Amino acid sequence: MVEVSVIGCGHLGSAVIRGLAKSDNHTITACDLDEDALDAVEPHVDRTTKEVREAASAPVVILAVRPQTVSPVLNQLQMSPEQTLLSFAAAVPTDFIEERTGGTVVRGMPNLAVETGSTAAAVTAEGDEDVRNILDDLGKYVVVDESLMDIATALNGSGPAFVFYLIKIMAAAGVESGLAEDDAARLAAQTFKGAAEIVLQSEESLDHLIDAVTSEGGTTIEGMEVLRESEVDDVMERTIRAAEERSIEITNDFERD
Ligand SMILES: NC(=O)C1=CN([C@@H]2O[C@H](COP(=O)(O)OP(=O)(O)OC[C@H]3O[C@@H](n4cnc5c(N)ncnc54)[C@H](OP(=O)(O)O)[C@@H]3O)[C@@H](O)[C@H]2O)C=CC1
Ligand SMILES: O=C(O)[C@@H]1CCC=N1
């Protein structure tokens, strides 16, 4: 069992808690100022607290508060170098955190799929065995240089929102043609999941996989023609860039502090 504290039990923190609870490998302390947030995660944790200092003793402390709340939380968090502070706060540089904690800092950017143990995460270091176990239980991760955390934040951190939007558009087209909403939503979501699984498991290129779906004289070729002639490449590029630029902007604010 790895003892872990999660500070901030909002959207991400509560999803981390539910994901870790499913793996059954962790003793979890949940910390938040908000009583409702603690009540919501209470069935999945061993202990809840409103006091940051009570969450500070675990070997791994996960920081899942909003960027602007990081500094006040760190002011109350007494940690030592053998403990790891695993920060999931977007755009908060490692240096900024290291200057304010005695703990060993690992910066990470997961996404909401921590909930199902299928997150895509970028981390600046693998950390010790406890940290690696936690990351493994939450999904898959890659180790990247800190300079790449802004693009990771846009791609895999914000990414689920962009994918949810695409699922919504595809499902809506199905409903427009007569599918029941539930059926359309399931077909669209399962199609994303299945396609993603093929990409992860196949050694073929994405162009090869597109070809494999595109039967001669069939349906896909018509759809692909519309897609290729559209502005979707530019739109998705701009979507990712906008999120990346915002991450850089927030990072710069921290570096000025
Ligand atoms: N949402 C996501 O998909 C992802 C989020 N992140 C990062 O995770 C962090 C949290 O994001 P998200 O979960 O969306 O935000 P939320 O606002 O949903 O959650 C933050 C939680 O922290 C609580 N909080 C505020 N101050 C303290 C404090 N002093 N001590 C303990 N808890 C406190 C908040 O309470 P209250 O609301 O009362 O202030 C809230 O419950 C951010 O830094 C974000 O960049 C990273 C990857 C993905
Ligand atoms: O929107 C945000 O700022 C956070 C970071 C990545 C996902 N959510």
TrEMBL record:
This protein's UniProt keywords: Amino-acid biosynthesis, Cytoplasm, NADP, Oxidoreductase, Proline biosynthesis
Entry EC number(s): 1.5.1.2
Domain Pyrroline-5-carboxylate reductase dimerisation, chain residue ranges per copy: 146-249
GO cellular component terms listed in the entry, alphabetical order: cytoplasm
Entry annotated with the keyword NADP: yes
InterPro entries associated with the record: 6-PGluconate_DH-like_C_sf, NAD(P)-bd_dom_sf, P5C_Rdtase_cat_N, P5CR_dimer, Pyrroline-COOH_reductase
Residue ranges crossing the lipid bilayer per the database entry: none
Pfam family of the protein (one): F420_oxidored
Enzyme class: oxidoreductase
UniProt catalytic activity: L-proline + NADP(+) = (S)-1-pyrroline-5-carboxylate + NADPH + 2 H(+); L-proline + NAD(+) = (S)-1-pyrroline-5-carboxylate + NADH + 2 H(+)
One record GO biological process: L-proline biosynthetic process
Protein's cellular compartments: Cytoplasm
Pathway(s) it belongs to: Amino-acid biosynthesis; L-proline biosynthesis; L-proline from L-glutamate 5-semialdehyde: step 1/1
Identification of the protein by name: Pyrroline-5-carboxylate reductase
Organism encoding this protein: Halanaeroarchaeum sulfurireducens
